[in-house]
Amino acid sequence: MRLSHHYVIPHISTGDMLRAAVKSRTMLGREAERYLDAGELIPDEIVLKMVAERLDQDDTKSRGFVLDGFPRTVTQAAGLDGLLAPGELDLVIDLEVPREVVLERLASRRVCVDCGAIYSTTAPPRVPWNCDVCGGEVVQREDDTEVAIKRRLDLYDHETAPLVAWYSKACKLAVVSGLGSPDEVFDRLVELVDAKRGPGWFEPPPSGADAGPP
Ligand code: AMP
Is 43 close to ligand 1, i.e. is its CB under 6 Å away? Predict the structure, then answer.
């Protein structure tokens, strides 16, 4: 999310989109809820349709976008290639964090139900538990329980880890350490993206531009 604010481009998080659908009780949300709560992956065709509709919106057409949590399977990656053709992804970032650190971070994570701002038990909002950004309620995600986290990590190993080879072969992959403070990781990512982007990759944003809601 911070990257999208920094570069003034849309942040497209499939997890956020699915949680919003669950909250507003749409047909997609009712179907997705049981997968989300159990930490299971939503079927590829559903996620691909959702992403196709999102990428069809005008705000993705001029300055690019950040995809977050997608693709998570090789089928999704192949589907994404089809959606972007004749264009293609500029860069894929593999944020490397040891499993025990991921477990610790997710178990202590707290999120704002309204704007999605992220906190932790060690870095809570100023007023417990009201979001510093929008005043919304800050809670533990349903799927941040120990059982669901373990399931998500196992799924990562089986379904998502093969994407490292997939994007490495396509010469799109950069591996970055996700260890350290949020600021340290963010600085590493900006350095990488700035080094990768050639002149003209992102035009400077028009003054007063806003990427819209995160
Ligand atoms: P996230 O917020 O990215 O951790 O995603 C939360 C949950 O949403 C995941 O555990 C899955 O149940 C579902 N989800 C998000 N993105 C995807 C995806 N690309 N493919 C399948 N399921 C997804």
Answer: no
